[in-house]
Amino acid sequence: MGETMSRDDLSEQLADIGRRFDARNWVLGTSGNFSVVVGRSPLRLLMTRSGIPKGDLAADGLMEIGADGAALQGASGRPSAETPLHVEVMQVRGAGAVLHTHSIWSTVLSDRHASAGGVAITGFEMLKGLEGVSTHEHREWIPILENDQDMGRLASRVRDVLGEHTQCHAFLLRRHGLYTWGETLPQAVRHVETLEFLLEAVGRTGGS
Amino acid sequence: MGETMSRDDLSEQLADIGRRFDARNWVLGTSGNFSVVVGRSPLRLLMTRSGIPKGDLAADGLMEIGADGAALQGASGRPSAETPLHVEVMQVRGAGAVLHTHSIWSTVLSDRHASAGGVAITGFEMLKGLEGVSTHEHREWIPILENDQDMGRLASRVRDVLGEHTQCHAFLLRRHGLYTWGETLPQAVRHVETLEFLLEAVGRTGGS
Amino acid sequence: MGETMSRDDLSEQLADIGRRFDARNWVLGTSGNFSVVVGRSPLRLLMTRSGIPKGDLAADGLMEIGADGAALQGASGRPSAETPLHVEVMQVRGAGAVLHTHSIWSTVLSDRHASAGGVAITGFEMLKGLEGVSTHEHREWIPILENDQDMGRLASRVRDVLGEHTQCHAFLLRRHGLYTWGETLPQAVRHVETLEFLLEAVGRTGGS
Amino acid sequence: MGETMSRDDLSEQLADIGRRFDARNWVLGTSGNFSVVVGRSPLRLLMTRSGIPKGDLAADGLMEIGADGAALQGASGRPSAETPLHVEVMQVRGAGAVLHTHSIWSTVLSDRHASAGGVAITGFEMLKGLEGVSTHEHREWIPILENDQDMGRLASRVRDVLGEHTQCHAFLLRRHGLYTWGETLPQAVRHVETLEFLLEAVGRTGGS
User: What does pTM read for this prediction?
Assistant: First the structure.
């Protein structure tokens, strides 16, 4: 999809996603960040800028960058500090879009299950919202990584976790929030909504 | 109503219902599905397509099908996989519209009360939102069915449950969500809102 | 205010209140009902019709009636079955507007505190949203009445409770919801928002 | 910023903030109040009027006042009774904007942690939404002051607390709500969203 939609269309879609996630309280403050692939060889992506409220991306909230985070096409400003995590997911998983949300329930669950190293979710019909999952009997393991301000180190651990859990659709950063992705932007949105639902359901059920 | 409103009017109503339920977090991801009868002999229904976000039904989210789920009028795509459950409710209960929502509270309650086989709700004024109920002293029994990916088998159990609980206005699928219906689409909407309220109230009260 | 605003202005205001309360999940299904005085001698009021969703009052959701609930000006349909409770509040308290909401928290609290006969709320700054209250040290007693489908009997108990608790700004019907009022419609809205906040705060605090 | 934006632009921004906070249930009733500096020598500020719903500031909800709360430019009405607290924050911290919200979670937490004199928050990525904070390992101490209707006395205690906790980004008034501020209005908004998130996350986690 990244290849066939115009950059303007993708920007509009990302702005719309920002407004919708903002209305659901998933990107309060300037939390959360979004990216979408706009070219593959070499990798180019449209990325949310650092420090921008996600409910108001329309005017100046996005920039096009390379895999190293450097601006392309004369863009000014800085991309999200978490860009290396997005690039890692794109490279390891071939994702076309990566979305990071920062909801109450993903934050609370990322802490409650930290000592177990992840959250296991099974038995919920909503699991079928995850690409390739065809039954509620699926067991999804969402790894939890300790949070870290050293993005190089954290990106390296993300790579390890994605290598170790080759089937996972997402990971949590402890007391930080949810990362998920998709082949396309709509698929990544579906994964966010699916996982935010599941985390809240697990959180309110009290079990896993 | 199904007979007297145009297909376009019904499509607009369903799209509006999708937006409203989406805003209430009742159809996250691509969860939930809606149907309305557009003809009776033989049964024809307007059904949400498989895998479509319910907040965005306007363009291409609905299709007209027969009781066997086959597309009519050259419609492409696939109807919701849960179509057989909708058809069952239409045939057994004569419902004009069937709505399936997938909220946090219906999911949590469907699990918490699963071993009892259902949720009993009594003493709430809101019960009067259910067709034919005229007092809060009414006792509504909402059967809970184990979830199943075999739709033929599940439809058959839905038929049994509707036969056994001839007065029930809804059923829950375990860890899956709420099914309710009405003679008309507005009545079905009223039942969804009434039951989602009651399930949350019961869930927060801790009793039944 | 009732005397100086046009019926059209009041209708628009009530429709707007309905949309806002609907967005807050305070009038799900067809729950809740609203009234405003449009004349005093004899009493005439604009009342929500029975069985209408409060988020969609614009077209045909209101009717003008007398104190006995009979339609004026050739209005068709039936006013809310709870009209006698509204009239009682208007007569005993001289209220210009009466609003009944049906939220999760007012329902849950009306049950949790039923054996005490009411909810005492003190120490919250938000109490100052109640007309005439100037300090958070105020103690508001919200009486709880057992729910009843006999409206004559319930109206009579409302009269007794208003006579006994001459300072109260509201009452709860058990497992049914909140009644509050004001000299004007905006004041009644302020009371709803103030009390719904306080009931949720008390409910989540676990104390009173 | 106060110096370079027009009063009309600031009024529009405040009205927009009011609508957004209202939609999040952070300024129910007529709770909450907002201010922004429009001049420094002497201090002049745009302040919400007393008793106005914050979701509807557009028409007549703001007035320009001096540090003593007296109206400038022939404005009528009264500014918020809590004006002295805003002025205190502007003077002690050099804030360009002060926002007071009144959410469920800030109210509940202000009570739950009152005996400790404040809430300590550490380990959350969202802390980086606070100006000058660059790591989740930051420990934010949010002092809690007993509520008081004597605004002179309360303003004096606010001054003491700001002097004692020179690094804090906010304080809570017990059973009353959150005060935070920023160099600019957008920064103050970011602080509100960041802190409301953190207080809810702490509240639902059960820890601090």
Answer: 0.95
